Amino acid sequence: MSAGVATTLITNAIGRRVPTLVNGRETMPYQGVDGYRPSGRKAATPVRSNSDYPANGDKRVPDLETALRLCGLRDGMTISSHHHLRNGDQVALTALQTAARLGAKELVWFPSASFPCHEPVIELMKSGAVHHIEGSMNGPLGDWCSHGHMRGLGVLRSHGGRWQAVQDGEVHIDIAVIAAPTADYFGNADGSHGKSACGSLGFALADSIYADRVIVVTDNLVPFPCIPWQIQGNNVDYVVEVDSIGDPEKIVSGTTQITRSPDRLRISELVARFLRDSGIMREGFSFQAGAGGIALAFVDYLARMMKQANVKASFVRGGSTKYLVDLLHEGLTGYILDGQTFDLDAVRSIASDPRHVPTSPFTSYNFHGKGNFASMVDACVLGATEVDVNFNANVVTHSDGRLLHGIGGWQNCLSAGCTILAVPSFRDRIPVIVDEVTTVTGPGELIDVIATERGMAINPRRRDLLDAVKGKGLPIRPIEEIKAEVEKICGGKPAKPRLLDRPVAVVKWVDGTVLDTVWQVVDDNPYAPQVSGGE
Amino acid sequence: MPAVAGISTAARGEAGRAGEDVRSDLHVSFEERAGGGIEIDLRSRVDVYYGTSIRQQVRDVLHALGVEQAHVAIVDEGALPFVIAARVEAAVRRAGRGKGKSSLPEATAFPPPSARDRLRRSRLYLPGNEPKYFINAGLHGPDAVILDLEDSVHFAEKDVARLLVRNALRAVDFGAAERMVRINQLPLGLSDLEEIVPQAPDLILVPKVEAPEQVSDVVGAIESIAETSAVRRPIWLMPILESALGIENAMAIARASDRVVALTIGLEDYTADLGVAKTAGGTESLYARMRVVNAAHAVHVQAIDSVYGDVTDSEGLLRWGEASRAMGFEGMGCIHPIQIGIIHRAFAPTASELEKALQIVAAYEDAQARGLGVVSLGSKMIDPPVVQRALKLVARAKQMGIATPTSASKALIGGTELSSPAGGQS
Questions:
Q1: What is the ipTM score, two decimals?
Q2: Preceding omega of A62 cis (within 30 degrees of 0)
Q3: Which of these, A202, A257, B73, B122, has the minimum number of CB atoms within 10 Å of its CB?
Q4: Measuring CA to CA, which residue among B362, B366, B341, B353 is closest to residue B393?
């Protein structure tokens, strides 16, 4: 078997050639932003009887190996994990290695995201214990997959898309292994306390509800009840106590440092001014920004403008950091609705402040929900590796074709009232605005503003935004003009990488259709920069 | 200049920087050889995109320098073309080759020639051997950029930095910023001028000036180089006074040439010369700064203050800048772009000053129109120097883009904006 299992490629609604068969399963090509309406009934777990579980609620077993055996581990199973422990996670890898030691083969790993710390999974794929990964592949794993080494296609989904895939039965989780910074013997679990505290555990919620078997692994076992709980013990089969679930220093950063790069500060300030001058920043508005350098500085600038204008947000959505927590403390927002918690200040806040609320991809992003929070947000500030003149954007591959990042919640956030991509106009001489992105991760019709240090481009579809900021002194420019200026600086258009006509992964849209294909790369540049993380 | 067979060893030269912590630069290792043409060994983080173009560019530069047989090893961290050209040329020159030749990058359009009395509120220092800061410097809206060849460049790298600055003057669009270069003290500064002057910098900062002759020497060099290289744009001078003697000679230095448009002061060297500590309050340099202001005004040139060293302290910078303006300075240096907006705010007239000045100017214009010799505002007679000051203030405010009464509020021109975009809110 190989990545390029003979499969038909067809051109989808955004003009991209995509396979119709992904890992043996018929898959719908992308039909347009709102073009697909699946029907039928949602997936469900097997019927259980509580008489099969200990009446005293104590579900502890001695170790992960025992738990996996009791879960009926066998070849070909799908094992899931979450990434709230980020690059400090030790549980997902241990679970897969333990399964391999028990002799399991052809497993599918279904993480909510993977990090460089998971690089040893490559060895498990080489040995045959793991067949392939369905989930974000960052850094080394993505690089390996890009070179066509993985059997089976990588399937990249957004956080919301992962929930959608589980709910509509596209992915069936056999065993969920949930790393929990705090848990009780019944399996109630939470992320906001303990030495390995990571804040919200929302990415593990779908796994806990929909997996056939659920194992909670904790290094902070507390007496029943674990309060608060985000994972309900009633969904949990076994609890395993270990010395450590991860490296706290890599789980959250001690202090989040705002960027000092003048160019990034300039982009951040422009984005904040855009929100102010377009009128989006008004009493009761809402916004979402991630934890990247530009996003943090943006929050800092916006907070000052909010104070000056005496305006408060009704809620903000995290990725939470000290900067959002400061907003909460200064009364500049009513609530933080938090999908993941990035630094110690934010972890302390979510553990102690009832206005700092853990959320999940279900509340925030899920296509099969009856609405979601992301589309209720007024403005969202995101990044991208590439953007094209039609405002299509890429977050998963670099311009050299290598798959190096996951989608995260990025696709889901595009449904915000105003989506702003804050990007430098070039990185290491590589222009960010191109004729056509290497991999479409987000359709241009959902992307409203591109903010660079050389000016901001507004999507011509958003006449309202163009009008709103007219005469406000913002450097609004046509996207083609910024692109031409950068190409002149960089010494011409960059050459395109050579890619094989062989898919190595697919990018799903939020509804489960296939938006684009990642192709195998040919050239290996040992001097190309390594990518260290992100999702 | 071919190597004499059997006698000389192969000519080698290296220039530039590479490594994991380096961005937008490259390291070039050049070795001339007897035959075999040009061989390029390239490792680049942007090889996929620009590998072919880099190889071609290196060949072109070598050809322009008269080198046809060489091995060149390059480690590239995403350098822009003007940087690649400068580093390759520097490596060749260090090998003793390419004498009398150069390879200039494609020129960008120069901004309009610099006016003698233009705004010089902020001048952003760019270390002359750090190419990564060049390309976007103009975007942050400083009144000037200073490509520095003096204190920020290690003594062993002067030759290399000089070529980089030369190429930057030619190829980098600094927007509306005045293009300044700080040269080294003479005689080293003469070699700087030979490379720099043909690229028509708008202003040369001359460091550690203590006597008018130093200015005359620089002027002489500029004029002869400008003539041979047919540079017709004005090249102004800003002497930096950095010693007790320099301060005492401020007047003579300011008068040494018509090209002098401003005097400035270097407080690190000045306090070192006095053997005193440089304090945040600046009491120790009060006399020197006042002396610079007075001498500058005596000969109708601008008085420009030193830099504020603590980048993180924007409140301190604002206070320093406001005090500086109150003393009679018209601008100061910046060591980080985030200081630019704060400095512009500090050197802007306050709303009430501007309001008052506009009233006086209106009264003056009214008196002129009616043929009256005396200007009066309400029941008060306005003295001619007050009128002059008001006219000057309004003219400056216009240059800053804040001259109408409705916009004459500091909140509008400064406020939360730390930096204003090039061509921004005016």
A1: 0.90
A2: no
A3: A257
A4: B353
